[in-house]
Design goal:
4-stranded antiparallel β-sheet, Methylamine Dehydrogenase, Chain H, mainly beta
Length: about 400
Amino acid sequence: MNFAYSSVIMTKTLMSKPTVAALIVGMAGVFSSPSLHADTFVYVSNALDGTISDYRLDTQKGALTFLRNTPAGQLVMPMAVSPDKKHLYAAVRSKPYSVVTYRIDGGSGFLDRIATAPLSASMAYISTDRRGNYLFGASFDGDVVAVSPISPQGVAAGKTLQTIKTGPHAHSVISDVTNRFVYVGNLGVDRVLQFAFDERSGQLTPIGSGFVQAPTGSGPRHSTVSPDGNNLYSLSELTGTVTRYAIDRTDGNLTRQEIIEGVPGKYHLQKGLVRPALGQGEKIDDTPRIWAADIKITPDGRFLYTTERTSSTVTAYRVAIDSGKLSYINTFDVEKQPRGIAIDPRGRWLVVSGEKSATIGVYGIDAQLGSLTRAGEAPAGKDANWVEIVEQN
């Protein structure tokens, strides 16, 4: 149970007996808990509207309140938040390809557009390094990974420091918790690329052979790193499986540990196929096929969640704290064609966007079981996809 929430419950219980001790305990719970003084904002990019929707999340009840839409650009999709929570970066995948930098107002949550810079390709994924000095981009269409600088003022610059040619369809790029290693999901060649990262120069250098091989035809898409930095979890778009790789903390090498299924047989989905690049149509045939999208882990590292678009579901897994080993919990119906998910910093709420849904959904995460319960919703834009959550103290 969340500390702030349990403190409030304790306060109500003790106040039923009007003692000085109860008052002291109750007030201590209220004033010591940062969550009661923090505003939490949710940002969702709407590709077809060309906007970013701003919401306020009630972290006690899970209610989501729409605030406003902020213009971004046609086919705005991947987003990233600076480590200091002061800036939001959004990549526009229509020509000319660009990244927009927004200043986040800590009080209102509103986005203030302060800069637009060119990108070398249509980026399917962007992220920052752990210090917030560099922007990484992975291009599904351009088959590259790129690194560009972020100024001391938090502005993503247009200058590209490095471009690395990958195999077909680079689909994600993330750094590890130490900021020493970077991993790329390379969907078209069934590989997870591995790089050493120099945070002084921004340069990426291949580790060993430069990749670890994933199962043939699996299509590694998005990945997430465990909070302790020991494991990388890679979601396969075409099979809906999660592959766990152990991270060598010395040199960053990945070693495959396990593969766990994530799409129950009751949905009768066939193995997925690589889909056309953006703008070239998404339909490949009439066969219902696996089409996994996003993966996130809770801040305490105990639960992991993935989305599958054809069945419109989120699958939950339990993570063994000592080993990182996964075990299947359940699969839950969510928004139609869920592209993006995000977990609030307290690990209490999962927010889901659906590309074909009229709403954004909020789901409570059971602290003991990891199961999901729908708690709230708010109107969504057209082709809602990427989700970011920012807590402001």
